[in-house]
Amino acid sequence: MILYAKGGIYIEFYSYQQPIFPLEIFYAKIPNHNPQKIYLQNQLNNIKTGLRGELNVQRYLEEFQFPADSVIIHNFHSMIHSKWHIQIDYLLISRKGILLIEVKNIAGHIEFQSKPRQIVRTLDNGTVQAMDCPFTQLERNVMGLKQLNLNIPNLSTQTLVVWANRSSRLSINEIPKPHTLIMMKSISLYLTSYFKGPNTLTSNEVSHLKTALLEKTIKQRKTPFCQQYQVNKLDIRKGLYCSLCHNQLKKHIRSWVCPECKVDASEQLSANILSLFDIFDSELKVEVIHEHIPELSVKQIRSILKKLGMRNRGTGRGRIYFRED
Question: CB within 8 A of 302, min separation 6: which ones?
Fold first, then answer.
């Protein structure tokens, strides 16, 4: 949780954004001939583009002077049931109710179509791509929230799409009600209008909502990458890789360096070890880590795991390390 003050009022800000470096290292470890390499590259680009937009929006949110009893959850995840999972970029809880914020950071000429509902992007080079409609995404998330049994009668739930890419050219005839779409720089103006008028919740109800939603928020630990992206574990390349440029790290006397971007070696060693828990399994033995990073000794790996605060159980060669969510 982060507390930041504006005008003497402290706002609670919770972020459940997962680090991107495990996916970067996974991408680096996949051989170029693997058929999933290009698909994963596209996934990485989309994730990084979306995250840049969300972080830009966050800077505008931090500028705004929210009223007391306001809580923001970034990257809210919740499992409605075993087959239905929702994700919301920003969830604002206040005495006005709940505001769902969907952030889009898509460049090009964007045309909103209603039948069927979708957006169509055209790049300057003529490439055309159809994408999911953000208003449909919001409606699905509102339906999901209603299934969470928050026990607040007449809870007001409003929706907002924030377009974070300044270079986009939007073509839209009509925004489906009751949604709102704004450009990123209009966030303060929108929130000023949003908070006008009477409140609908008490401070106690806001506190109840915050507690209930945080309890239902899951710190998302996905299916192991090999399984999720259908990559054979035997195809994963061994060694230490840079999470920034995807080149293999090289030993230089007593330290490790990236020949391309000269990243901090100690940080990259930890990143490589941690990524294996996302790539293969959430529980690993030191011997398995050593098999995939043979450049490091078992003693070095144990030392890094200890510094990372990784939990473990068992003794000797049977000791298993795991991440506690």
Answer: 286
| Tokens of residue 55, six digits | 């972080």
Is the pLDDT confidence value at 7 over 70?
no
Q: Is residue 49 situated within a structural domain? A: yes
Note down the domain range covering 255.
238-322
Lookup result for tokens 């790049």: 123
Beta bridge partners of 158: 99
The mean pLDDT of 223-248, rounded to a whole number, is: 94
> What does the pLDDT look like over 245-288, one tens digit per residue?
999 998 887 788 888 887 667 789 999 999 999 999 999 999 99
Nearest 5°: the CA angle 198, 203, 205 is: 95
Q: Give the span between the Cα atoms of 51 and 141, in whole angstroms.
A: 19
Number of domains in the chain: 2
Domain for residue 12, yes or no?
yes
Q: Is residue 16 part of a domain?
A: yes
Our measurement of the distance from residue 145's CA atom to the centroid of its chain's CA atoms, rounded to an integer in Å, reads: 19
% residues pLDDT > 90 (the chain):
78
Mean pLDDT of 199-220: 90
Asked whether residue 223 is domain-assigned, the answer is no
Residue 245 amino acid letter:
C
Q: How far is the C-alpha of 105 from the C-alpha of 95, rounded, in Å?
A: 29
